[in-house]
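Example S7 (structure tokens).
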């Protein structure tokens, strides 16, 4: 087993284990911490695939942004010690059915896909084309995705505050 294979299996194991811990843990702060491990391990997989920009975005946006917002909203609303309520049996059954269907669909899609290596030329890029792409709203522009990301961060902040807000009834 090569070191790349070892690292892949290590990251995959961390992602699977901490994903399960994230959704099964009843303490909000621990679940957010487990989610952080999942997102950092996903960035590790992106680095292994040499998708450095995507890995950096994964670390800064998701691991650095959303999880920090969730943790701060939990800390600011004083709900560290509180546990989430135990889900009802019907919710557990529907969640299990959804997970089985989703996993089966993923496995089916992966088995049907014909993986072939393609050789492509590296695009000739310079600072001017990268800069124009960052401020452009056209076909290859990044201005719209950055705006969508800002809305995603705002929604994550509002959602985490609503989840962490203490009920007074």
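Recovered sequence:
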């Amino acid at each position: 087993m090569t070191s790349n294979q070892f690292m892949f299996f290590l990251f995959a194991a961390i992602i699977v284990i901490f994903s399960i811990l994230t959704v099964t843990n009843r303490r909000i702060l621990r679940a957010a911490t487990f989610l952080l491990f999942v997102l950092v391990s996903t960035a590790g997989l992106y680095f292994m695939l040499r998708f450095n920009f995507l890995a950096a975005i994964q670390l800064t946006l998701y691991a650095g942004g959303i999880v920090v917002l969730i943790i701060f909203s939990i800390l600011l609303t004083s709900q560290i010690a509180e546990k989430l309520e135990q889900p009802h049996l019907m919710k557990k059954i529907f969640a299990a059915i959804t997970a089985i269907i989703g996993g089966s669909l993923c496995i089916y899609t992966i088995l049907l896909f014909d993986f072939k290596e393609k050789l492509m030329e590296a695009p000739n890029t310079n600072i001017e084309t990268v800069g124009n792409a960052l401020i452009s709203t056209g076909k290859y522009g990044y201005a719209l995705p950055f705006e969508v990301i800002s809305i995603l961060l705002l929604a994550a902040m509002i959602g985490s505050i609503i989840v962490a807000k203490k009920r007074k009834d």
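Notes on this example. Residues 89-115 form one domain.
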